[in-house]
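Ticket #4471: structure export looks truncated?
Reporter: QA, pipeline team
Priority: medium

Steps to reproduce: submit the single chain below to the structure queue and open the exported record.
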Amino acid sequence: MSNKEINFAIIGCGRIAGHHCKAITELNGAKLVAVCDLEIEKADNYARQFGAKSYLDFDKMLSENKNIDVVTIITPSGMHYEHALKIIKNFKKNIIVEKPTFLRSSHFNDIEKQATIENVKIFPVFQNRHNYAVQRVKKAIESRELGDLSLVSVRVRWCRPQRYYDLAPWRGTFAMDGGCLTNQGIHHLDLLRFLGGEIKQVNATMRTMGASIEVEDTVVGTIQYADKTIGSVEITTSARPDDFEASISVVGSKGLAQIGGIAVNELQIFTPNPSDCEKFSEDFSGNVYGNGHLKIYNEIISDMNNKDIFSVTFDDARKTIELLNAFYVSNESQKTTDLSEKKDSIYLGREDENLSKLYRYK
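Actual output as written to the record:
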């Protein structure tokens, strides 16, 4: 049985939106109907490039194009919750939500409730799970090629100078962005779970070292998995003068695996079979977002046609955001945080009406 063509629309036309547009237009069974942004020039640019309609107002876009099946939300992180709730409640559309899905784990409850009422689907974006290197290490863990895991470590040493945060009012704020852990480090946090399993406790210390922003640009932390495995996290955007490293390593009783590159795309160490390093590494030069969006949309088309279930469940994404918030709670309380408490940060995702007005679609 052939697939029904799935019609997509995109809200938020920043840099990463181009990768979404490209993925949609390259796949059979998908059509990009419309794009929307508060700066019409940005929407017009993608509309011309990918053969879609452009809009300044997503209410108008969704009212005029009732054939849209799925809306991709690529607005500032702190607006994901508001935009998702409105699109589901008012227009009953399935949604894709870029990372981080929502800033507060409690947001998931409201979105899930509304999605259940309207019978719509939610597709969280964690595209790096699809990278060849990540998939190879995941397989090695599941097949016990690496044996019993003892240590999982993340190390990100990137550069985000003040001029980066000065590009837009939402950057570097608790309400709309979060710091190095939320914005730059979220994929690595997700891989801590994806590769190592569920996490029981975290302990974290955060600092702001290299820019005048209200959020952290440096964090170190330790984690305790549900089993005996432990882990460490070191993430900073205060490295100067450039990006140096972004890696995740897994130490097991039978071997070691390390994934690096600009977007966890290089299998750098794999002791069970060193020749796999070249075989399962991808060249992401010039494309920090990698190739995973194409695979994500392929999965969404299949899911929408009731053939296969999307690989990242809503609850799976919720657990990654619960982990994210646990780091902030630990730093705020200066205590070890148990994830079973499911606490949200005091600051991350807090309401800021003045900022929200800047990014709210009329």
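Status: closed, not a bug. The export was complete when the record was re-opened. Leaving a note from the reviewer for reference: Residues 6-127+293-312 form a domain with the Rossmann fold fold (CATH 3.40.50.720).
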